[in-house]
Amino acid sequence: MTRREGVQLAALLVAAAALYVTHSFLRYATYEAKGYDLGIFDQVVRQYALFNAPLSSVKGVDFHILGDHFHPILALLAPFYWVWPDPRMLGVVMALALAASAVPVYLFARRRAGHGVALAAVAALLLSWPFQAMVNWDFHEVTLGVPILAWLVWALDGQRAWLATGLAALLLTVREDMGVTLLAVALVMAIRRFWPQAAVTAVLGVLGYWFATSVVIPHYSPTGAFGYWQFTALGPDMRSSVLFLLTQPWNAVAVLFDHPLKVALWLLHFVPLLFLPVLSPLTLMALPILLSRLFNDRLNVWAPVYQYDAILAPLLLMAALEAAHRLAGRRDTLRRLPAVLVSAALAAGLIGTAFFPQVYPLHRTIAGDMTMTQHARDLDHAVGLIPDGVCVEAADNAVPHLTARTHVGLHGDIGDELATWMIVDTSVPELGGWDPLTPEQALARAERLGFERVWSAGDVVVLHHPDRAVSPTCTTYLEHR
Known about the structure:
Layout (H helix, E strand, L loop, with lengths): L2 H27 L5 H15 L28 H6 L4 H39 L2 H8 L5 H16 L3 H11 L6 H14 L3 H26 L17 H10 L1 H7 L4 H11 L16 H8 L17 H19 L6 H19 L6 H5 L7 H12 L5 E4 L12 E3 L11 E5 L13 H11 L2 E6 L2 E5 L7 H4 L6
Parallel strand pairs: 1-2, 1-3
Antiparallel strand pairs: 3-5, 4-5
Helix pairs in contact: 1-4, 4-5, 4-6, 4-14, 4-15, 6-7, 6-14, 7-8, 7-9, 8-9, 10-11, 14-15
């Protein structure tokens, strides 16, 4: 890479990262960021930065986050909070992680098609709908897996099989289900005849999944068990799901396409890439993550608006590039296929961002549509009324603005005895969380517990309990213990 090429790549990455950070900060400023998940991860990283156990009051009183999902890699973010302990710092981390994942894509594409096509491939990735969905989600542990998997593919492509094995091991710290992804990585290694590395990766995958789901998560979980079996459309547990796959494979395939949202998800992933990923073995590594959503029986996880797709975007783009390069080498008439592929992917990102904000939410930042509404101002005033060091129950959109100075949870999730303040947003159908209350239920509960209304405006209500002392649980939550 020449200096000029490096400057061009760096400029593109900086521009994208700046756009991501701007969108993230605007979501926070306009009260669009949520307790699920920005508030949760802010609490977790903040506790790591204080050298405390990662307890999240948004999930519940003394809820240890490793009892929910296995993502110890989040502890590595503590130094960022030593610099700036603010929820918006996670938006900066996210932007850096996504930009870092574009570098191996550039190197992968440049090896096959030169600098110009590689630069366009990076632009296509950075504007892709999965990356935009990730940015619009505020933050998630999957963010940190995006560059790891992208660099893993680059390592495999460069015959650096042991480096790929090491990156696969690191992937286990991102989320418990990455153990299954490692089995797919091992299969790709075996196809490429990296036999020792394939064996080690497969063993790591099995052991990593077992350790996360059978040892760590049950140890910290309030229920004493792992509660996120994802292939629920096939069966309630691994045994029944595997049996369904083996005995009814035709029905299992049908499940992958039995709803318009599922079909849309397939098309959004593969149409911009001209369906070329299906011709590359690299795509096998994407299947565990993709199938875990499509074999889930919850409709909301099929929608193309979630953070989960971001980890697939670099992988599928590199798979498409590999297939395009192989076809171009076989037929002279297809010699420009890599450039056509990248042009199609970039055009999809540009057109989508210009006209389809539902799937390409960066449109709102570019168009200047993210502004401070009166409702956001009311929420901001309500948050300002809450004292430091108290326990407060708040609506999902107010939570990230309270995590830095209070013990904050969602309505009904921290019990009936701790909170002395409440913020209720009556404009939403539910107030957030795994088993959310409606605003009406929250207000009725507040009255039953003895809370009094101290301020309201528009759809925002602030309540205070006049007779309840602040618990030490609240005052010590943000202290080093």
